[in-house]
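Readers of this paper often ask what the protein records in our data store actually look like. Such a record has a labelled line for the sequence and another for the backbone structure tokens. The tokens are whole numbers drawn from a learned vocabulary of local backbone shapes. We quote a single record here, exactly as it is kept in our systems:
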Amino acid sequence: MKILAIETATEACSAALLLDGELLDRFQVAPREHGNLILSMVDELLQQAGVSLQNLDALAFGRGPGSFTGVRMATGVIQGLAFAANLPVAPVSTLKALAQQAIGQANDGQTVYAVLDARMAEVYWCEYIIENGRLKDVSKEAVIAPSTISAVPRKSVVGIGHGWDTYRDELTQVVNAKSLSIIPNALPRAREVAQLAVQLINNGQTVAAENALPVYLRDNVAKKKAQQG
């Protein structure tokens, strides 16, 4: 399976190319530079692999939540590429792609809390559990004040995402786990977007270019963006 993935929902900009199990990627923390980087990253990967868009099976993108500008950019870029090459798109949760980094560092049965700083004293948050080496959604994605998260006490928890760096004390208190380990300085990456896209593609959960839509979570912003077109 050949998949091109991009992720621009945070200050990190990345692209990845999955070619029959081999993964190539580009990653750079570059706030406000995504527009100057993402297409060049895509071109570099395609040239390195010696393939064109038309050789691919599907595209994937981090559909949010995250920075509104970043999520909107990823959506626009992936729609343009998908229209140009007539390829299906796998929309991947940015939070789940973040949590995917815990695979290999955590064990089956452990809970993973993916948390991104959403500004305005809130976080983007979702709970997952690792089952048979894969992430299973436990909660719905939410944007919420960290101190108001209602978390069921878990025995062993892995925390990941820069929301933990900003709100560690509040999150540690509400999680109330017997064992808590935090993966520091983690940002979502396109390589995990590509990995999760494989599952979506195998399950028939791709969409056409025009239906590759962003997820903002903040309704007022989503409505404003929709009105702007």
